[in-house]
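Obj.: predict assembly geometry.
Materials: sequence records (below).
Method: joint structure prediction, all chains together.
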Amino acid sequence: MKVRLKGTMKLGRSTYRFKSNVAISDCFTVVGKKEGQGPLSIYFDMVIEDEYAGQKSWELAEGKLLNIAITKLVQRAGEKPDNIDLILSGDLLNQLSSSHFAARDLDIPFIGIYGACSTFALSVGLASLFVDSGFAKNVIAATSSHFCSAEKQFRYPLELGTQRPPTSQWTVTGAAAFLIKQEDSSQSPKITHFTVGRILDFGIKDPNNMGAAMAPAAFDTIMRHFSDTKRSFDYYDMIITGDLGYVGRKLLDELFKKEGIRFSSELFDCGILMFDPETQNTGAGASGCAASACVFGGYLYKLLRERTFEKILIVPTGALMSQSTALLGESIPVIAHALAIEIV
Amino acid sequence: MFEFKILHKGAMEKMEYLKAFLVGGLICVVGQILIDKTKLTSARVLVLFVTLGAILQGFGIYQKLVEFAGAGATVPLPGFGYSLAKGAIEEVSKVGFVGAFTGGVSRTAGGISAAVFFGYVISLIFNPRSK
Amino acid sequence: MNIKDKKVCEYLALVKANEPKTNSFKNCILAFLIGGAICDVGQAFLNLYSSFFPKDEAQVLTSITMIFLGAFLTGVGVYDKIGAFAGAGSIVPITGFANSIVSPAIEYKKEGFVFGVGSKMFLIAGPVLVYGISTSILVGLLYYLVKVFPGI
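Observations (raw structure tokens):
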């Protein structure tokens, strides 16, 4: 049954096209010390060097970063919190603890979502559906991640003397919040399409090799986006994945090569842009919900506003494992969602 | 004669350190190869090592390594397995059947208690840091 | 094999072919050097204690000392830095055992001293104790059987 929401059209199996001017009106990015020393350091709105952000635990620290991103965004956008219809937020922690801690004192209707590292696209895409359909005027899409809370939950205690394998990625400590509303002016980048991914599983069991696990999802969603929209690779100035990292990005290249597909421009990845591997010892690249969210919110958003790029397809990917997945001997289910963001 | 004894003692000690270094280092290399080349995580390698140490002592083999390399055999984790098995065997010789259950843990009680105690005390004082 | 399984197999082969290489040789050299050095530290303590105590006690005291060192270095945040380049050289010695107990104890401190520190302490070291003790019991029992029934 095709559901037709006012203003939105469904294209093909997976893509929503927004007919009205759904814009990312403003955004705010907060990052941690390591990210603040990386190649994109000047682009982030705030760097918080204290890994505890003045809080008592990693989980509360992450919630604090997210809370700061949201409150600063509301302030800078000149809005009153009462004018915000909805927050759509997610993170990596069990039961979305960070998002829930962050929203505790905000008094704004809240929906929590889980997409692992694809949460940026998931939250912005869903926010766009709310706004384009007219159900909401101002929606905040937000996400966070924190190196320490992620290591504690998914991998090993921080002080354990293990070696990180070369495929392992560094979870970004950061948070980003985006204000989605209808805007007619041509100043703000518009979200034109949202392609919802499907869950795939290509047999990767190693939680230290998420790039390899997620590459097929990025491939699948990108191909679906083009098939649904009838666009081609040449349409976009930049196609960028979320956090495939060096390993996953290489595999994605190979997957496209196998299908005989070439692009006119290079395929980028937020996980690769965030850190300098030579000086920062970050293995195969950055990961975490904040990887794609902060790289987009801090850096790509500005490039769009300056019209350095005018049409970006961003494809954040998520490795949907739990703490038990590897122990149960299961492989990692993955997903990728795509957003077409254009300045017109 | 007296000088010869001191020199000889010094040389013996140096040999001790060399043997401990070589054997301890080699056991670690085996562990490193297992971590790098197989799908075994480091925790599984440790379980393998402690079990092997116990089994090798069951056959009386690890004892010989301890006599040869001293700390080079007792400090790495197979040495912990060796200690457990040695304790069990000695206790069985003394008191029979029950010794299998009491001997291992009582011989290694010092190490286990220290680990628990220091683990607790250190956690009282220190906090985890980011990398 | 259906199409889906075939695709998965092909992909896994592609992943394997594109795996970044670990410099295992370098890792082994470092593991050898650090592991050997830690054992020498143990040997030094053993020699020291042997001058004052009988052999068995000296051995126990050496273990306790090494465990304390591993625990302390973990607390001050040094042991994980050693582990990053030493690999098995810091994991395999008994100091690594202490590190595997102290690191979760510190990490879960925020969850309280009973359920945080108290129960999470054995998160990583627990299996070592389970398998070590169980194997020693089996060894002891087998030894008993061989002793009682020498015919075996």
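Conclusions so far: Helices of chain C lie at 3-17, 24-50, 55-75, 79-86, 88-91, 94-107, 113-120, 126-148.
To do: check interface contacts against the pulldown list.
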